[in-house]
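User: Just a sanity check before I run the rest of the batch. Below are the structure tokens for the first item. I only need the designed sequence back.
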């Protein structure tokens, strides 16, 4: 009888130990599940906020680009206006700074495209300012150099024609190149607002 009582006692202690272990495991498992759910909620909230920030950043960048480009085109009409020169320089800095500030919300591809937009627009604007008043023969070489740069930069634009090197036509074509660069930001915004990546 003592043996049976000892065995029953051991079995009872074993069952109580297993029950306590099972409750402990269940408790920790539930705690892990709650922590995982909390982390998942935090990540999805963070993703939603970053997604919203990404769309807002692209919208703001496009608006700032338009302000900068419009200011630059106004400057072309009033080249001697020093206040306007400072204002356009400030707008350029604002756009560049805004791109740098919002880079964290954008994908690597979007940042690369925005960098290209900034570089290409600056190149075309420089062409507009520096080369537009040159005599025809050096201007012909400049147009050739611009077209070579377009080819090397693999820009999605047609080469500049500037029939008979008409300076107004050349000016218009360079302006269109600057506007075309801005359209790349619109495309990034469209993709982002549809929830797609670049």
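Assistant: Here's the designed sequence for the first item:
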């Amino acid at each position: 009888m003592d043996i049976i009582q000892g065995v029953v006692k051991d079995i009872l202690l074993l069952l109580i130990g297993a029950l306590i272990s099972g409750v402990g495991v269940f408790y920790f498992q539930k705690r892990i599940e709650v922590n995982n759910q909390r982390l998942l909620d935090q990540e999805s909230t963070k993703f939603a906020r970053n997604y919203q920030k990404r769309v807002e950043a692209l919208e703001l960048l496009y608006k700032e680009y338009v302000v900068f480009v419009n200011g630059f085109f106004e400057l072309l009409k009033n080249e001697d206006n020093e206040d306007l020169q400072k204002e356009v320089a400030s707008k350029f800095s604002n756009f560049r700074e805004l791109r740098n500030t919002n880079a964290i919300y954008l994908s690597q591809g979007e940042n690369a495209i925005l960098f290209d937009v900034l570089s290409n627009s600056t190149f075309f604007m420089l062409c507009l300012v520096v080369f537009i008043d040159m005599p025809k023969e050096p201007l012909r070489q400049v147009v050739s150099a611009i077209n070579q740069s377009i080819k090397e930069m693999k820009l999605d634009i047609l080469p500049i024609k500037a029939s008979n090197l008409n300076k107004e036509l050349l000016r218009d074509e360079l302006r269109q190149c600057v506007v075309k660069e801005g359209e790349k930001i619109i495309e990034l915004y469209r993709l982002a607002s549809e929830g797609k990546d670049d």
